[in-house]
């Protein structure tokens, strides 16, 4: 059974702090990983994709991938109340590149 | 432009009704997806069309019938649904060069 695991939260951070979201995956063959943000009642919005070991930065967001440890993370710097949402981690299924393996999501609350 | 559009935004239907959901993208993507999402759960894959052919059916009940009239359009025909089918229905698309899935805003379906 291929799985992606995330802490469900809620993760609560004060405004301006760094929020750290973590994800582990079981499919060692997975090569592509995605972070989606989802506000309540809305559709998932792509925040970051990462394919290579190391860090990838985009504005206040940094994704980190460690394939040896099968670990993906998302750091949000200078967290804002508007970042309060559920963050979904997904790994591309190595056996079928049309399928994503989803984590259950981490709920983030940024407190003013 | 990474826009996927879906209509309608909301739909209420009785168990004997027939209705359709529509999804459209003009990004030249050749794979399109239907997902179902219940509250506090990740998206659940239903169907995938690749180059206008059905490539994945995740054992979805026959009361859901997908159709891909052309490379930009995807429909989901609904008939004799059950109240438990009430959910957010999401469409997504992805190009060949990237396996990144971009989601539409979704259709909130309520079955009475």
What's the quick description here?
Helix content of chain A is 0%, strand content 54%.
* Measured distance between first and last alpha carbons of chain A: 40 Å
Give the overall shape of chain A.
Answer: globular
Structural class of chain B: mainly beta
Helix content percent band of chain A: under 10%
The fraction of residues in strands of chain A falls at over 45%
Q: β content of chain B, as a range?
A: over 45%
Q: What share of residues of chain B is helical?
A: under 10%
| Count of beta strands of chain A | 11
Please mark out the parts of chain A with pLDDT under 50 across 5 or more consecutive residues, or reply none: none
What profile does the largest beta sheet of chain B have? Answer: 7 strands, mixed
Mean of pLDDT of chain A: 95
State the end-to-end CA separation of chain B: 37 Å
Structural class by SSE content of chain A: mainly beta
Provide the gyration radius of chain B in Å.
13 Å
Sketch the topology of chain B as an H/E string, one letter per element. EEEEEEEEEEE
Largest contact between protein chains? A-B, 22 and 25 residues
For the secondary structure, the number of strands of chain B is 11
Architecture blueprint of SSEs:
The complex is a heterodimer of chains A (about 110) and B (about 110).
Chain A lengths: L3 E3 L4 E4 L4 E7 L7 E6 L6 E6 L3 E5 L2 E6 L4 E6 L8 E8 L7 E3 L3 E6 L1
Chain B lengths: L3 E4 L2 E4 L4 E8 L5 E7 L6 E7 L2 E5 L6 E7 L2 E7 L7 E8 L7 E2 L3 E5 L1
Parallel strand pairs in B: 2-11
Antiparallel strand pairs in B: 1-3, 3-8, 4-5, 4-9, 5-6, 7-8, 9-10, 9-11
Structure characteristics:
heterodimer; A: 112 residues; mainly beta; six-stranded mixed beta sheet; five-stranded antiparallel beta sheet; B: 112 residues; seven-stranded mixed beta sheet; four-stranded antiparallel beta sheet; 11 strands; 0% helix; globular
